[in-house]
Each structure stands twice: as structure tokens, then as C-alpha cells.
Amino acid sequence: MEKSDLKVKVLGTWSSPFVMRARIALNMKSVNYEFLQERLWEGKSERLLKSNPVHKKVPVLIHGDKLICESLIIVEYIDEVWPSAPSILHSDPNERAIARFWAAYLDDKWFPSMRSIGFARGEDEKKAAIAEFEKGLVLLEKAFGNCRKGKPFFGGDQIGYLDIAFGCFLGWLRVTETTSGIKLLSEAKTPALINWAHRFCSDAAVKDVMPDTEKLAEFAKMIASKRRGEAPPKS
Amino acid sequence: MAEEVKLFGTWGSPFSRRVEIALELKGVPFEYIEENVSDHKLKSPLLLKYNPIHKKVPVLLHNGKPILESLIILEYIDETWKQNPILPQDPHERALARFWAKFIDDKVNPPVWRALLGSGDEREKAMEEVKEGLETLERVLNGKKFFGGETIGMLDIAANFIAFWLRVVQEFSGLEFLTPDKCPALTKWCDEFVSCDVVKEHLPPREKLIAFTKNWLSGNGWTD
Q: ipTM above 0.85?
């Protein structure tokens, strides 16, 4: 059997930006998959612990009998197993290196700084967290200008690796804007990214897997109250 | 046009040395520029120009274009110079190599330094993390000569930290991270790896590294 004909499953949650990356990539390649939803707020299932014993995290891509972990590694795997158009990664090694660099920056520095806004205690801490986060956004606005070369996306005419790596966070970014009361993507500081965000969310491979902001905000409240030890609201 | 390859690195960094090994393996001639990373004020303007965000080595400059982050550089090198491939052909094998390389950087490297710096419970906890990581890699190696099979590949290069730095720290500190009874294949792999022709020229001088690390431990400043 052709490798690309084997059964595909994604172990994940509807709310995770990392899981979204895998789903967008599969959608881009028109690959059918079964979405196995984990209820992480109730604890990690046996299935998850067996599929990703090292990190115990979602997403996990299950392809035939193979397990692939780590969202960015999954995206590259998908691009390699289903090499037909559209390509997710650029063909030029330098462009690929730039995209990988920014994806690593997003995961190692930028997304943690966004989470810091939510965890900040008191106005001063919150202000500092937002300032740090906005510095990152300015860098990303500049990177977008450099990568896009006048086209609509980081990937050019179509969404690519870096669009996926970055765009998956838009749902949580909007929730953070709502809860903090601050516009993080703004016309003043990030005009190009605001337009990019609309285009990304409207993309055919994205729109069905991008969570509704209100639903995500409700979910965030539920998780926060669980963390504080309160009884979960009836959902 | 003649190809221009430059590497901004530092003698003591495993990340920097990874790139040297890969270029050597591919037979790519390059100019090496040593950066003084222990003093931020002494970092060269070129390094700060090419890596303004992280201000770190290694930076590979290929025909004037910078490539950053050692694992990303390894992939770039493999994609640009096709001889002696360092990543496997099979997509699943490639995914595994990438996964375990990241695992080394995220889960094995940091707790070694935490164990060295820490004491009491903190040190114990860090040591457990390192040992667990090494035992996991023992299973990944699965009795092979190299992670890459008969010859070294990207994961072997990424594991350079274990073959040399971890063992140097182990020897002078007495912290037993890697033992032959728990990790016989990995222990053997370390010796094989450091003996490879393409590797042995690209390891820091042992005594110099020990002295440098001891100096750091006594609070006299460090590289980043």
C-alpha cells in the first residue's frame, strides 16, 4: 500500500493552536483524517500517554502504525509524505531556514510571552508582559514584510509553513485581547499583520479548524476556574 | 560565483561545533570567525547585525545570507550540499531524527547545567532528568553503532553535547550522569563518535573547557 494511502488520525483538542497546525497542513493536502479528541482538562488519557510517552502532549499524528509528535515536525512530515501541491515549505533552503527560525521564535519566545499576559498579577506585571509581547509583534510585522515579498502570505500566494506556525495562535490572541482589554494587533503598530490575519482565518484550509473566539474565551474561563479549584460550570 | 561560507562560532559551544562537523562532513570549505561570547560588549558588530534577536552563535553566512540556530543550520547544510546526507531519506525517520535532536536540546542539555549549579534536592531532580533522558536515548540508539546507522547523521551531530561536554562535566564534577551499566550502547557510542575523523578536529580542548567551566562555576561569568 502506498504510504500516502494509510489511515491518518490526529490526536488533539479543538482549542490547541499546536493541534491546529497539523489539521491545517492535512487540509491543505486534502488528506482525510480522523480527529480523536482528548479531554485534557479531565486528565491525560491512556491513549495519549501511549502515543506520546516522552512529552505526553498533543498533537500526535498517527499515520498507519507510525506516531509523529511535535507540531512543527508533524507539519514537515505531512509536507514530505504528501509532496503534491500546494507545498507547505518553500523549496529554497534559505527561505526554509528563515521560516523555521521564526517558527522556533514563536514557540520559544512569543507564545510564552502571550501566556504571561494571562498569568500576570497586578497592573504593573500586566503592563510589562504586554510591552514584551508587543515588542515581539513588531518583530513579526517586520519579518512579514521581508518574507512576503509583496504577496498576501508569509508563504507567498498561498499559506505556508510560517503562516500556519503563526496563524494558529490568532484565536488565543483574540481571547487575550478580550480579557486584557487591549488591542494587541493594531492598525498603528501592525497594519500588515491585521490584514494577513483576516486572510489567514478565511483560508479554506483554516476556517473550519480556527476556533470561535467566544467559545475559546468560555473555555479559557473554565480552565482558569478549574485551576483555582472551583467547580466547573455546566457546559 | 565562488561560494562564500563563513561561520561565526565559539570554541566552547556544542552548538557552534555541530555546524563545523556538518561542514566538514560535506567537505565544504569555510572561514571561521571566533566570537567572544562571554562579554556582550565584545561581540562583533557583524554577529549583532546577523543575529540581532538572539545575539548568539553559531551564525552561518552563505553568500552573505545568515542562517541561525544550530539545528536549523544543520538542515540548511543538508539541503544545500547534497553529498553525504545527514538526514535520512524516509519522512518518518526524518521526523524521528528531528524529534530526538530537539529532545536533547530541551530535555538533556539544560538539566546538566542545573545539576552542576544546583545542590540538594534541585541537583537530585536535575540528575534524575538527565539520567532519564540518557536512558531514553539508549533505547533510541537500539544497539546501533551510530544514531544514523553505520555512519553519523544529524542526530549524532546533535548529540555531540552528550559525547563530549556531558562527559567532561561528569569527570570533573563526579556527577554520574552516564554509566555503562544503565547505558552500555550510548557509552560506546560516545567513544565511537569522538573518534570519527570529521568530529575529532571539532571538539574543544578538554583542559581548556574544564578550566573555563570551573571559572564559570565560581561566578566569574559565562557564555550564553
A: yes
Nearest partner of B178 among B189, B166, B165, judged by Cα:
B166
- Our CA dihedral for B32, B33, B34, B37, rounded to 10 degrees, sits at -130
Q: Which cell numbers in the block locate residue A166? A: 503563526
Tell me if B75 and A96 make a contact (CB, 8 A cut-off): yes
pLDDT tens by residue, A124-172 = 999 999 999 999 999 999 999 999 999 999 999 999 999 999 999 999 9
CA A195 to mean position of chain CA atoms:
18
Taking only the tens place, the pLDDT of each residue in A28-68 is 999 999 999 999 888 899 999 999 999 999 999 999 999 99
Residue type, position B90, single letter: D
On chain A, the residues whose CB falls within 8 A of the CB of B53 are 105, 139
Confidence of residue A233 (pLDDT cuts 50, 70, 90): low
List residues of chain B with CB under 8 Å from any CB of chain A: 53, 62, 65, 67-69, 72-73, 75-76, 79-80, 91-92, 94-95, 98-99, 102-103, 136
Task: Label residue A43 exposed, middle or buried (CB < 10 Å: 0-12, 13-18, 19+).
Answer: exposed
